[in-house]
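Entry
Fold in token form

___
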Amino acid sequence: MTFLTRKRTLALIRHCRLGRIRIYPEIRDPVVRQARISSPRSAITFTLREFASSSRDKQSIPSARESPRDLPTSGYEHIDAGRLVEEEELLDYRADRFYPVHLGEVFRDRYQAIAKLGFGSSSTTWLARDLEARQYVALKVYVRTSLVHRELPSYHHIASRMKDSTHEGRGNVRRLLDSFVANGPDGDHVVLVFEPAQMSLRDMKVVFRPEGFDEDFVRGAIIELLKALDFLHTHGEIVHTGICPVDQSPLERRPHGVGPSGAKEIIAALGPPPVEFLAKTPERRADFWDDEGKWLGLAPIPEARTMEALECRLKDKAGFLSFIRRALTWMPEERATAKELLQDPWLSGRSR
């Protein structure tokens, strides 16, 4: 079988972005004029602003419909058909649940699949070319057994709140462009069409900054994330329950929550949970703690994983740890909101 490796996919995405600039040279000029960006924080803001404005510009440019592209048939890594890869390695994987997307396939006579971007237990995600709008999009193809689709009505709700909002975080929330149903060999699959995301910070670190990001860049990234969360919480009335689920090991994903290994990491970072927290879920407390709130020792607490031990490179370590402790607390009512965190001294540099 032919398979796109992660490295090749990242290279293809970078090529696609360059292609956009060649097709619309007028987009290049603002980037050149703004080349001397003062800080990583302004670089993040500028990138988001330019990406949003270029998308709007492209939608207003009249152009003929593109023809589907002839994708290369060689140069890929070949993997034995008997070897399990990506979603095939999931414990609950069944081939008949997933839509068998083929590179070059055109959905709805409009969206041509170009490369695989990701996968999960309930969907796969693909880079695609919108042949009508002449732009790149991301297709999220759900498994046919998804009975409840909360994401689609949530995006419709967010779109209604974006319409008349001037909140500065609205531009950091990815928009839903379209949705449809794909008829697969074993059933129907809901497909959501999104604006393509930029390279994730994880991939950016692997490709460009293996030694890690500097403190100013981290501040800038957190500020933009918090702006988006504040919009979702205060204007969109949406609660985001997970920013990066890939950090959780498949072995730790259980029907009832976090396993012992995950719990020990949380305890190492936050300290032991207060009695009030354990009282909220007595059935879960019995899995890990005794009646007096003492850890049952199902896994050793790693002293080297405390927040103080983990961070040793920041210039303002005390300010950063204070910020993190406001964001990560056992008791929800003690946790700072996104709006409150945006005013934190560490983010503004006032703690130094």
Observations:
- The beta strands are 2-3, 77-78, 106-107, 111-119, 123-130, 135-142, 176-184, 187-194, 253-254, 257-258.
- The chain has 13 helices and ten strands.
